[in-house]
Design goal:
Elements (H helix, E strand, L loop, with lengths): L1 H10 L23 H17 L12
Length: 63
């Protein structure tokens, strides 16, 4: 009985995010990089991500 009442409570909650609380990204906030620099950064990121070892024993994508 208590668990069903608790479930109903969460169904009735409404969330509103005000515009002033939403993060905004402006053009001047973005890094100033050429396409070649961005591609190099993506490549390095992929290489480093491939080196990460999982600790939960689950296989990583591509294995």
């Amino acid at each position: 009985m208590a668990s069903s009442a608790e479930g109903e409570t969460f169904k009735k909650v409404k969330v509103e995010i005000r515009d002033e609380d939403r993060p905004g990204v402006k053009g001047e906030d973005l890094p100033k990089m050429s396409e070649e620099e961005m591609e190099e950064m993506r490549r390095k990121n992929s290489e480093e991500a491939a080196k990460v070892e999982r600790t939960d024993g689950a296989p990583t994508e591509g294995e």
